[in-house]
Design brief:
Helix content is 0%, strand content 61%. It contains no helices and 25 strands. A four-stranded antiparallel sheet has the order 3-4-5-6, with no helix packed on it. The chain has a four-stranded antiparallel sheet with strand order 7-8-9-10, with no helix packed on it. Strands 11-12-13-14 form a four-stranded antiparallel sheet, with no helix packed on it. The relative contact order is 0.08.
């Protein structure tokens, strides 16, 4: 996402198919309710895009300095660093239906195991939100928690302490500490392994969940911010280069 646009890439040709204007500094992306949702870091705005027509369906007022974005339990959830909240957005009405206090600097957010999980970087914890009551019901200490990626049995939390911790969602216990590169961010599961982008190193650390250890680390552009899976390959955003790297595992 560059110049206030969402860039749509055709995975068959690896070519840009469309550029869609979406605010000033689009950051978070998620899909749900047959729509693409984009949060903006500069504007207090959530943009809803119809992926069939590439047209904007709605613009919804949210909190400033939005960071993470997720879809789950029939709603869009967006974190706001500026006021320490998570906003729940109703896609049927295109408006905020709940505003939940979530620590001092909520970053990553994900829906898993029937709950919303938030990485509170400022508070050094992972928060569990009950989606029926719109309320934080548990806090688990995780140093400098930044991003959360679920697996079938755990939450994998990237932290600015330069490690990924494996968290048991049932008890909140940390079952593994995995040292990675500097400032790991938005990881993803690729071919059964966790690919972790280290934005300050420009590298990817690949974690084997069987051993809870890094199997390999390699360079992947400058400012490796996020990883996503497409057709079995890893797509890595090199944010400083303005590039997407497609890597076959």
């Amino acid at each position: 996402m560059i110049a206030g646009r969402v860039v749509r890439i055709d995975p068959a040709s690896n070519a840009i198919a469309r550029r869609i204007k979406a605010g000033q500094k689009p950051f978070g992306l998620t899909y749900g309710a047959k729509s693409l949702w984009v949060s903006d870091r500069n504007l207090n705005r959530l943009t809803r895009i119809n992926p069939r027509t590439n047209r904007i369906q709605a613009r919804i007022k949210i909190g400033f300095s939005s960071y993470g974005l997720a879809f789950g339990a029939g709603s869009v959830w967006v974190t706001s660093e500026s006021d320490g909240t998570v906003r729940r957005v109703n896609p049927k009405k295109n408006r905020v239906s709940a505003k939940i206090k979530a620590g001092s600097q909520p970053n990553g957010v994900v829906y898993a195991f029937g709950a919303i999980w938030v990485a509170d970087l400022g508070g050094g914890s992972v928060l569990k939100i009950d989606v029926r009551r719109n309320k934080v019901i548990a806090r688990y200490p995780v140093t400098q928690a930044d991003w959360i990626t679920p697996s079938a049995d755990a939450l994998w939390v990237s932290g600015e302490s330069n490690e990924v911790v494996k968290l048991d969602p049932a008890t909140g216990a940390i079952t593994a500490h995995v040292p990675v590169g500097h400032n790991p961010l938005a990881s993803a599961w690729i071919a059964g392994e966790l690919w972790v982008p280290n934005i300050d190193d420009g590298t990817i650390s690949v974690i084997d969940p069987a051993t809870n250890a890094v199997r390999t680390t390699f360079a992947a552009g400058s400012g490796t911010l996020a990883v996503a899976e497409t057709a079995g390959d890893a797509c890595v955003s090199a944010s400083n280069d303005g590039e997407i790297w497609r890597i076959r595992p």
